[in-house]
Amino acid sequence: MKTMTLINLLLVSLMMSNPAFASEGERPPHGGMKGPGAAMGMRGIQDPERMVAHISKWLELDDAQTQELTNVALAAKPQLLALRERARANHEAIAVLDGNDSDYGAKIHSLAAESGQIATEMTLLVSQLRVDIHAKLTEEQRQKLTEGADRMRQRRDGTRRAPGGDTEQ
């Protein structure tokens, strides 16, 4: 379970941090996020070929593995982009709500529920993508991926793990 969580973190970080997968021609400014992902705590989805090239080089994948991962990433791209668009529209709808509207409570409740549904769908899609990619890797590659995800999480959190698993600041 820990391995799957770490792999998920790495894949989400890799795929969601690169703006090339966001949408055609859309690039966030350096150091910032653009689009609905920013509102939902997600980063723009990367260009699948670029993400796979990075993973392929880092994990030393063979040509067959690289092609399999490319196919998996390309297959998920339309669904990921559709979720981004839904999230963007939802965020914009929330931003323009008038707090003085007599139906404000019902409207914000509906939009909040939709936001939750979008987040759920994104989590499920990215989790399935992680499982599909994980299945294409050798045990050694999965281990390297897990270790890299752990290092990334530690850097992000500003913590390091003690040998016993305790967190030190």
Description:
The protein is mostly helical and 169 residues long. It has one domain. It contains six helices and two strands; from the N terminus they run H-H-H-H-H-H-E-E. It has a two-stranded antiparallel ribbon with strand order 1-2. Helix 1 crosses helix 6 (139-157). Mean pLDDT is 76; it is low at 5-45.
Strand order of the largest sheet: 1-2
Gyration radius from CA atoms, angstroms:
18 Å
- Proportion in β-strands: under 5%
User: What portion of residues is helical?
Assistant: 55-70%
Which geometry do the CA atoms define?
elongated
- What is the overall number of helices? 6
Overall number of strands: 2
**Class computed from helices, strands and strand pairing:** mainly alpha
For the record, the count of structural domains works out to: 1
Could you give the distance between the termini? 25 Å
- The average pLDDT is 76
- Uncertain spans: 5-45
How many strands, which pairing sense, and closed or not: the largest β-sheet? 2 strands, antiparallel
SSE series: HHHHHHEE
